[in-house]
């Protein structure tokens, strides 16, 4: 992600950028739940960063290296977690929180026409 940073940064003031949910940072999850949560985050990151609209804003080599690393970690976690459907029960399902967060990221990018500034905010969040 550091390699994907713009070489020159201009002041960038965007309204209401999404921030990673605090509830996920301070949640004591069982190790398998934590791994499943990490897997979901990496899957969403991979999907978001592999979108065509990122190509114009970030260097291709750094972006491809990051996507390859994400895919490697996704594959590793998928091998560890054969069936994670029963890991989360109850009203405070972190996977739902993650889904909403990444939906907000996509809405944020769309609202700012996938600008370089919006993408840099996403890079910093990641």
TrEMBL record:
Primary location recorded for the protein, binned into one broad class: secreted
GO BP annotation list: defense response to virus; immune response
Keyword Signal: yes
Any Pfam family matching the protein: Interferon
GO cellular component terms, A-Z: extracellular space
Matching PROSITE patterns: INTERFERON_A_B_D (PS00252)
Gene3D superfamilies: 1.20.1250.10
GO terms for MF: cytokine activity; cytokine receptor binding
Entry keyword set: Antiviral defense, Cytokine, Disulfide bond, Secreted, Signal
Keyword presence, Secreted: yes
Cellular localisation: Secreted
Family membership: Belongs to the alpha/beta interferon family.
Function recorded in the entry: Has antiviral activities.
Identification of the protein by name: IFN protein
Gene name of the record: Ifn_0
